[in-house]
Design a protein that fits this description.
The structure is a homodimer of 155-residue chains. Helices cover 39% and strands 21% of the residues of chain A. By secondary structure, chain A is an alpha+beta fold. Chain A is globular, with a radius of gyration of 19 Å. The two termini of chain A are 16 Å apart.
Amino acid sequence: MKAAELPQNTNCSIWRSLEVLGQKWTLLIVREAFWGRTRYAEFRRIGVPTDVLQARLASLVEEGILERHPYRRPGERTRDEYVLTPAGRDLVPILAALAEWGDEHRPNPRGPASVFVDGTTGRPVALAFTDAVGTPADPSDVKMVRGSGAMAPTP
Amino acid sequence: MKAAELPQNTNCSIWRSLEVLGQKWTLLIVREAFWGRTRYAEFRRIGVPTDVLQARLASLVEEGILERHPYRRPGERTRDEYVLTPAGRDLVPILAALAEWGDEHRPNPRGPASVFVDGTTGRPVALAFTDAVGTPADPSDVKMVRGSGAMAPTP
């Protein structure tokens, strides 16, 4: 059994998310998609090597995070655009959590590069922990405990 | 200039967080730390190769996410425990966001391995987006827009 296939890893949704998203370029490509980029040439601008970009885009399509939409500019061949699926758009809290930690602990003197806003009101929003009835919890008091899907650690 | 050093990357707090956290094992080690593991032999149980674990623990200490506390069991040499710093504990929304996406899109049939609870009330909590006055925002309506620290993309 490969190390990464130990049951306490495969049972863990953090591990399963990182299987899809754990490479740095993957989440930066997703960041660009949230900023409205859809075309190969646009994703190239983040500096990702061509072969890595091709592999990551194919993987994100296979994992159901991006989907291909063909388009054709006059006089050119048909190309694919890459558009976030609903599962892809559900990644927004992961990007927001990464941005909030970076803004707090690795701040950019020019201010945040990414800001999260309510699409309806236009107001900035931030992540908060709330219980089932909406009562906010102090994040420094939130504990991460083992649930029904956790395996006992190997001895 | 290396690709990853393009200004639109270095200005971005998502990128800077991923510089610290982007390797899969790093966040799995942090997960173990949240579950209360502190000792080298405990971290080894997740299946991480020894050399990788040593490098990741050193990096997490250098980045201010874990700190070393010496301890000694009777008759043994002094060893280090690894304990989350306040900056390390601030990673809990990133782990919660990863767990929530995994539970939704890559569910474990046995149920979630990680559950997040309010340490005071013991009630389960989940991430929500709220504006400055605490009004919740529909996550599917949250947009990620470029802030003051974002650079124009290279042409």
